[in-house]
Amino acid sequence: LFRFEETSNQIMQLSPATPKILCVLRNFVAHAKELNNPLPAKPIFFLKPPSAIVTEAGNGGFIDVPAGVECHHEVELGVVIGKGGRNIPEETALEHVKGYVLCLDLTARDIQAQAKKDGMPWTEAKGLDSFCPIGEYLPKERIADPQQVELWLKVNGAVRQQALTDLMIFPVARQIAAASQRFTLTEGDLLLTGTPAGVGPLVDGDVVTAGITGITEMTFRVRQLH
Amino acid sequence: LFRFEETSNQIMQLSPATPKILCVLRNFVAHAKELNNPLPAKPIFFLKPPSAIVTEAGNGGFIDVPAGVECHHEVELGVVIGKGGRNIPEETALEHVKGYVLCLDLTARDIQAQAKKDGMPWTEAKGLDSFCPIGEYLPKERIADPQQVELWLKVNGAVRQQALTDLMIFPVARQIAAASQRFTLTEGDLLLTGTPAGVGPLVDGDVVTAGITGITEMTFRVRQLH
Ligand SMILES: [Mg+2]
Ligand SMILES: [Mg+2]
Ligand SMILES: [Mg+2]
Questions:
Q1: Domain assignments of chain B as residue spans, ordered by start
Q2: How many CB pairs under 8 A join A and B?
Q3: CB 3.0-4.6 Å disulfide test: which of A33, A133, B70, B217 passes with B110?
Q4: What number is the average pLDDT over the span A165-184?
Q5: Does the pLDDT at position B9 exceed 60?
Q6: Looking at the partner chain, which of B18, B56, B119 has a beta carbon nearest the beta carbon of A19?
Q7: CA of A17: how far to CAs of A6, A81, A123, B135, in Å?
Q8: Across-strand partners of A81?
Q9: What band does B1 get if pLDDT is binned at 50, 70 and 90?
Q10: pLDDT, tens digit, for every residue of B171-218?
């Protein structure tokens, strides 16, 4: 038996406690319908790599879209986990929330469509560099009830997505409970909780502004890579 | 603009430099054929969450299989990234390797089959707790050529997988180059490089031993959860 702690933190860096980005899919009825997707019977998750994170201050505030890729915006409420756990009961799940962060679950819709057709992983469609723009960290106190905030997103000033989080099929607490039955949650994990209707393409030069009404706002510019 | 560094490392913990686990699929012809899968034209990746990592010393050396889940063993050479990068050329890709670690890419084959059929993410099939057993950290010097090592896996003493890594469709250098075109690589990233033929189910009480011939060996026991 080797002592993991010796190798992990000092040499490998990666350990079971390394934070991850979990995202729930099809969590707003109107969004599932706009993409002709069936509604899930339980929360289903996928991962985004941390390398996809971009901030207004990082990468010059740019969302980078590779040439030929159809990038869709999805505005989502991000939940930052404080106390980790496994098999967390829904009743106490919100006690495991440390804070919130506004996120875009950018999606290469064309790559995703091909992956779905081929039965392949969603990783490339969801995980390209800069495909996880995030806003400022919001301590838990800033949001009294995660099911009672309004998410919005504008492209070049025109509203594309706007909805209250009380429309979620699976509320945040249910998502935390469900995720923790499959994947042990650890401090620093980020959970993207699904997008409302109105997703659509972003093209070179677009200015994307997103917000949680009355709480936070962020702006990114879209740049096509060649 | 908010300063990401202030929130990320101290409060959010997650940053673009947080290490990830990337895995390549269908990288040995005989393995792709045994599952009746077409061969990929280029390396295709998926993610495992760090929470899936288990070591001989962690979790008591147990692989935990939820009741009703068909868990398959896949022995793989893990590559630990040292110097990160984006668009790394294949020619210099091995300079980005810091070391190696023997890994099992455990797979809930039944959940994966359903996900493939439904066009859903592979995350649950690949990412359950303890579904990424890893061995001791091997500094780069321990493996002269990653395409010239033998991987093997035994279940209860019977050999199930045994193959030289020169059978990889996409060698390690090509995988690093391909991965870095989509996902910026960062120090500490772990790359699972594909499994040879011979995958099969693990059931309660099985003892799994895997190794890189002449270099390292690890043992796990399978425990069914109720
Ligand atoms: Mg996936
Ligand atoms: Mg989404
Ligand atoms: Mg594999």
A1: 20-225
A2: 179
A3: B70
A4: 97
A5: no
A6: B18
A7: 14, 12, 21, 17
A8: A97
A9: very low
A10: 999 999 999 999 999 999 999 999 999 999 999 999 999 999 999 999
Query: Rounded to the nearest whole angstrom, what is the distance from the C-alpha of residue B118 to the centroid of ligand 2?
Result: 17
B2 pLDDT tier (thresholds 50, 70, 90): very low
What is B20-225's CATH topology? Fumarylacetoacetate hydrolase; domain 2 (3.90.850)
Contacts of B63 in chain A (CB under 8 A): none
Q: How many whole angstroms from A173 Cα to the centroid of ligand 3?
A: 32
CA of A108 from ligand 1 middle (Å) equals 13
State the burial class of residue B2 (Cβ atoms within 10 Å of its Cβ: 0-12, 13-18, 19+).
middle
What 3-state DSSP class applies to B84? coil
Fold annotation for A15-225: Fumarylacetoacetate hydrolase; domain 2 (3.90.850)
Query: What gap in Å lies between CA B99 and CA B78, rounded to an integer?
Result: 9
CA distance B149 to B212: 7
Token pair of A63, please?
Answer: 């969302």
- Short-list A216, A152, A142, CA closest to B2: A216
CB A167 within 8 A of CB A29: yes
